[in-house]
């Protein structure tokens, strides 16, 4: 699984506290995977 994530652990520790937790509604997907997907789509080229 190493190398699948665009965000390294240091960057993730900065971002993770900013994400909402324990909200009512549908089950959340893996936040790190979703953010990495967004970065992949926005990546130039």
Protein model, in words:
The chain is mostly helical. The chain has one domain. It has 2 helices and no strands. The chain has helices spanning 9-15, 31-42. The longest helix has 12 residues, at 31-42. The N and C termini lie far apart (24 Å).
Strand segment tally: 0
Q: How do the helices and strands follow one another from N- to C-terminus?
A: HH
What class would the helix/strand composition place it in? mainly alpha
Proportion of beta-strand residues = under 5%
End-to-end separation in angstroms reads 24 Å
Average of per-residue pLDDT values: 82
Put simply, the count of helices is 2
Q: In percent, how helical is the residue content?
A: 40-55%
**Rg of Cα set:** 12 Å
Low-confidence stretches: none
Tell me, briefly, the overall form. Answer: flat
Biggest sheet descriptor: none
Number of domains: 1
Record keyword descriptors for this entry.
45 residues; mainly alpha; 2 helices; 42% helix; flat
Give me a quick take on this structure.
The protein has 45 residues and is an all-alpha fold. The model has no long low-confidence stretch (mean pLDDT 82).
Q: Layout of SSEs?
A:
Blueprint: H1 9-15, H2 31-42
